[in-house]
Structures are given as C-alpha cells and as structure tokens.
Prior knowledge:
Aminopeptidase, Glucose Oxidase, domain 1, two-stranded antiparallel sheet, disordered N terminus
Amino acid sequence: xxxxxxxxxxxxxxxxxxxxxxxxxxxxxxxxxxxxxxxxxxxxxxxxxxxxxxxxxxxxxxxxxxxxxxxxxxxxxxxxxxxxxxxxxxxxxxxxxxxxxxxxxxxxxxxxxxxxxxxxxxxxxxxxxxxxxxxxxxxxxxxxxxxxxxxxxxxxxxxxxxxxxxxxxxxxxxxxxxxxxxxxxxxxxxxxxxxxxxxxxxxxxxxxxxxxxxxxxxxxxxxxxxxxxxxxxxxxxxxxxxxxxxxxxxxxxxxxxxxxxxxxxxxxxxxxxxxxxxxxxxxxxxxxxxxxxxxxxxxxxxxxxxxxxxxxxxxxxxxxxxxxxxxxxxxxxxxxxxxxxxxxxxxxxxxxxxxxxxxxxxxxxxxxxxxxxxxxxxxxxxxxxxxxxxxxxxxxxxxxxxxxxxxxxxxxxxxxxxxxxxxxxxxxxxxxxxxxxxxxxxxxxxxxxxxxxxxxxxxxxxxxxxxxxxxxxxxxxxxxxxxxxxxxxxxxxxxxxxxxxxxxxxxxxxxxxxxxxxxxxxxxxxxxxxxxxxxxxxxxxxxxxxxxxxxxxxxxxxx
Length: 559
C-alpha cells in the first residue's frame, strides 16, 4: 500500500491554528484585552478559619439553650434529695443527661469511674464557749465545719499549739508532731492557719490525743488588704479525720489563744465513707490527636444543694457549646481534635480531674495542647474574671502558653464591651492538676466569683451590689432557681434584683452566663483551628515552675 503523506505535514497553511491562537490569547491577556474571570482565592489561614467558626458558634449558643440545661439539672436535683453531689443518684442522673446529649450529637463518649472519699454534713455543727463566758458562736459567720471532720461531740479545755499573734504572724502551727510535745490528752487543740495543709494539722492533733481541733485564720497582712485571711473560711481536710474539726475567724482564734482554761464544746454530725463516681468525656471523631484542645467543667454540686451556679452554670455552658460545635466541626473540618470533660468529685478536692490526669501516659499528656476550665460562670453578683495566665498578680505558676489563653478570653470580652479582672492562678479548680509540676499543660478559663465580697471598684466595672458576696448562696441549699424559698437571704436578693432586674433568674445572672458561654464558644472555635503561640502538635508541655498550689473543695482550700 502506498503511504500518502498528510497535507498538513508539508503545507503550513493547513496546520492547526491552536498554537497561534494560544500565543495571540496570551498577548491579549498581557495587554488586558481579554477578561480572564475571577482570581482563585487563597484558602483561609487557620486564624481566619477559626474566626469564621467563632462567628457561627457564638451565634448558635444562646442563653435559652444554656438555661434549658440548667433547668434540667434543677429537675434532677428536685427528684433526688435536692442535690447533685458525686456519689449520689442526683449526680448519676446528671451524668446520664450529659452523656446522652453528647452521644446523640455524634461524640465519642466515655465514662471514667473512680472511688473517692465522700463527705456530708448531715446537720449544722454547733460551737460554743462553756466557761468562763458562756457564748454561742454562729455557724457560717464565726466558724465552719471542715470537710471530712469527724463526727461527734468534743468538750474540753482549749490548748494553743505554737500560734503566733505578732505581725506578720508567720506560723507553722501544728505542722510538726513536735509542736504537740506535752499536749494534754483530752484537750481541744487550737492551731493557726499557715504553711502546711489543714489535714496535717488535724492529723497531728489527733495523734497527740486531742479530742477536737480548731483551725483559726492566720491574720497575715492587714484585714483591709487580706480579708480572706481574717474571716471564717471553708476548708477541706482531704479525707476523714477521727475528731471534730472546725475553722474560725482570726479574731475568735486570737481571743481563745489569749485566755487560759477556756472550755469549749464542738458538736458535729457528719458522714464520711468511700463511694464511686465518674467523669464524662466526649471528643470529636476528627482532628489531630496530637494537639487536643480540651475544655472542662465540674458536674457535681455540694451535698447541701443542687449547685445551679456551682457548677451547673459551667457544666451547662460547656454542654451547649459542645452540642452546637458538633455540626460545625462535621462540615468545617477543624485542625485539632476537641475533647470536652465533665468532672466528678471536684467538691471533694478536684478528685475527678486529678484521677484523669494521673491516668494519662506521658505521651497522652504531650498530646493535650491546652486545657480550658469553666467553674461558676453565672454568679448572681458577678465579676468577669479570667485566669491569670501571664501571672501579672504573681500568685501562681502558669505553664508557658497560658498567657496567650488569658489574652484570648480578654479580647473576646472586650469585643462585647466588657472589662475583665484577673482570677488568681492558685489551683482552686480543675485546671490545678493540668498545671501541676511534671504536667505543665497551658491552661486558662473563666470565673465569676464565689464566697468573696464584691468591691466598690468591681461594682463600678460590672454593676451589682458592693460589699455583698458574688454568690450569696455559695455551697448552700439556696444555690437553686428558687434561692429565697431554699433558705437564701431575702433582703440580699431583693437588693440584687433591684440592681440587675430581669438579668437575675434564681441564683444565676443570665447576662454573665450569656457572655461567658459565648466566650467559651469563641475560644473553642478558634483553638480548634489554630493554637499558635500556645501549643503545637506533639509538644511536650512545659512543666510549671513549681507545684501547683494545693487545690480545694470547689474553691475551698486545703491549706
């Protein structure tokens, strides 16, 4: 067969024109004669993606949604002895409610059980001077029962133990067994707060033969500067002690220390035993597992009440954020895995978060990029406080990266036109185990105040009533949606209602709850995409400069 060469192979006039068209088109584009269509936009940076997610999530989280969870917690308490304390049916039903909501939203949910020492004051304690001047002291004003106090009646002569009433009143009273040398067995030990844990002082007193122990406040600094070192305080012995144990004001302790042959009577009606409770954990299916963004709140109340502010508010705010975050994460594909936690037995001494952190391997610790904590975010006479991550107060040991978390929260509050104050980084809530020596995970969070008294300066910043507690029902039955019906001071709540109007719903300030719930949403959304300046995938957390201060029973203290 004769091969016939194609004309196009030899005749330039018949060759395809594509090459020449392309050249001409390129020239036209260069001259701006041909429209090329819209330019392809660069993908958003992680920070931009986080900002967009924040806008969506803060819009989705509403006060009505958060209040709905709070009302459910109230119903659970109403049906279970008016409490949601760990180790009670009220707590178990609260954990069921949270876990079921999260499972339906598509989270991977787990429940981590552990045993813990349970304490309940069955009836209010009594404290009185028998001789030389019969006096009945006021529970909650002059004294408090220390958590895990022994049960019973102790009447005997008061014996001071190595107390120091001379300013600045530095003391190691009761911290050493030697302090009790020559202590008369059968007497009541009077020791001063300072240096070591209350448990050490109480154990040494019991070992020396004391039938009861009084720990009075230290009185260091001036009362105007350090009122918490003068007034009666709530404290935690960390575990059962065999003798009645109470705390008193500095003034009362100093008075007892300054007299001789004073006989007092302490009556306590308490229960201490081992019970089982659990943490509820939920995490997103996707996202980097080597840079987990973690956020938590304690779910338990004290035995005395339903805990609607402490810590129903933190638990409800976090739950609503988690539920609204789930569909957003499914579609937006955030960079980092997010893990939410509802802690048990916080009111017994941060035991749920301590158990969780202790159960982690070094690799698992390294995979947690940061931890956020939300404890009491709707106090009725609120302040807007942010954990002091940059240690500007000089009161804590925040791990590296914590300052950036403080800045993140402060920027959001400022965007809402709100001022903020520091909350001391003193380990008194569930971030304590995360910042402890050898762990050192960057941490931050929000807090609206507990038993402390609102100052005039804070009232100028946030409104409300000065010289009244941030939460007048802190650790009481009236921490509920009906505070005055449950024993709250009606006059105090009338003053708060006059100051806040419709913002006050039961023992909750809805404005504070709303702003803080949105601040949680903003932080979770942004950090899910971008943790630059805080942590990076696979980072080994920077250990805190020193051990985290001793934690406490839901803002109660151990030392």
